[in-house]
Design goal:
By secondary structure, the chain is of the alpha+beta class. The chain contains three helices and eight strands. It has one domain: Nucleoside Triphosphate Pyrophosphohydrolase (Alpha-Beta Complex). Strands 3-1-6-5 form a four-stranded mixed beta sheet, covered by helices on one side. Strands 2-8 form a two-stranded antiparallel sheet. Strand 5 and strand 6 form a beta hairpin. The model has no long low-confidence stretch (mean pLDDT 85).
C-alpha cells in the first residue's frame, strides 16, 4: 500500500514538472564582449542618456547561440564576426533567463550601428551606469578568464 502511494506521488510530481516546464520556459540570451586592438570593449546604449551595456539579444527559435550572436552583431552593431567567437560561459541574472557570453576579437565594421550609440571603453574606465556584475564579467573576459573564475 505504501509503495502505491509513493508511486502515485511520483507520477503526480512528474506531471507537474512537465507542466511547469512547458508553461514557464527559460529564455536564452546571447551577449558579446567585442574587444578592439587596444583591448577596449564595445558598449552600446539605445537612447541618449540611457544605460550602457554589452550588445545582447534573445536567441530566436531555430537559432543556436553563435548564429544569434552573428545576427546581433551584423544587424544591431554593423559588425561582421570574421572567425569563430569564443564562448566563455553562461550566467543568469533572473530565474527565467540564461545568457551565453562570447568574446569577439576578430571582427570588422561593415556599417554604422542601427539606432544605437556605440563606443569603445577601457575596462578600467567603463562609463557610469554599468552594473557591478557586468563590470566584473568584462574585466574577467579581457584578462582571458571565464566569467566564473575569480
Amino acid at each position: 500500500m505504501r509503495e502505491d502511494r509513493f508511486f502515485v506521488g511520483r507520477l503526480v510530481a512528474r506531471a507537474f514538472q512537465q507542466y511547469w516546464r512547458l508553461t514557464r520556459g527559460v529564455y536564452l540570451d546571447v551577449e558579446a564582449c567585442v574587444i578592439d586592438e587596444a583591448d577596449r570593449v564595445l558598449m552600446m546604449r539605445k537612447e541618449a542618456g540611457g544605460p550602457w551595456s554589452l550588445p545582447a539579444s534573445t536567441v530566436r527559435n531555430g537559432e543556436n547561440l553563435e548564429t544569434a550572436l552573428r545576427r546581433l552583431m551584423r544587424d544591431v552593431a554593423g559588425i561582421e564576426v570574421n572567425s569563430r567567437p569564443e564562448l566563455r560561459g553562461f550566467y543568469t541574472e533572473s530565474p527565467d533567463r540564461q545568457t551565453g557570453l562570447y568574446v569577439v576579437r576578430n571582427w570588422q565594421q561593415l556599417s554604422a550601428p542601427a539606432n544605437l550609440e556605440t563606443s569603445f571603453f577601457a575596462p578600467a574606465a567603463l562609463p557610469a551606469g554599468v552594473t557591478k556584475p557586468a563590470t566584473e564579467r568584462i574585466s574577467r573576459l579581457v584578462e582571458g578568464r571565464t566569467i566564473s573564475e575569480t
